[in-house]
């Protein structure tokens, strides 16, 4: 018995903020939105997917952003992505370097921490 992969990452968001999620995850990060299954759509939130990368944003009552726990997303052009995020008003932060990776952090519109990584 072994874990063979990750199906999706779930992040929380406040109720009624789906458009802000779309603008960030699809508009800036370039991850297309996919339709939620009919039986889950009434709960609110948004799902995004590109290839095997799946991010589900679910509405959470009494929402608090994830400040430490975070997904780390790979990109092929970290510089261009961080420039686009900064131009849209998002603050980019750096952390200790990791061997073989350039990386930066950004908070989504709800304050959830997102790591962006590019292989050197």
UniProtKB/TrEMBL annotation:
It comes from the Bacteria. Residues 5-119 form the VOC domain. InterPro entries: Glyas_Bleomycin-R_OHBP_Dase, Glyas_Fos-R_dOase_dom, VOC_core. Gene3D superfamilies: 2,3-Dihydroxybiphenyl 1,2-Dioxygenase, domain 1. GO terms for molecular function: dioxygenase activity; lyase activity. The keyword Oxidoreductase applies. Keywords: Dioxygenase, Lyase, Oxidoreductase. The keyword Cell membrane does not apply. SUPFAM superfamilies: Glyoxalase/Bleomycin resistance protein/Dihydroxybiphenyl dioxygenase. PANTHER family: FAMILY PROTEIN, PUTATIVE (AFU_ORTHOLOGUE AFUA_3G15060)-RELATED. This is Catechol 2,3-dioxygenase-like lactoylglutathione lyase family enzyme.
């Amino acid at each position: 018995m072994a874990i063979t992969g990750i199906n999706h990452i779930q992040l929380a968001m406040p109720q009624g903020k789906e458009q802000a999620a779309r603008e960030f995850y699809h508009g800036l990060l370039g991850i297309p939105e996919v339709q939620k299954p009919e039986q889950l759509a009434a709960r609110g939130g948004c799902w995004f997917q590109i290839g095997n990368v799946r991010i589900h944003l679910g509405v959470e009552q009494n929402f608090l952003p994830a400040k430490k726990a975070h997904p780390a997303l790979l990109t092929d052009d970290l510089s261009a992505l961080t420039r686009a995020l900064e131009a849209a008003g998002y603050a980019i932060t750096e952390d200790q370097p990791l061997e073989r990776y350039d990386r930066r952090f950004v908070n989504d519109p709800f304050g959830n921490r997102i790591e962006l990584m590019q292989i050197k």
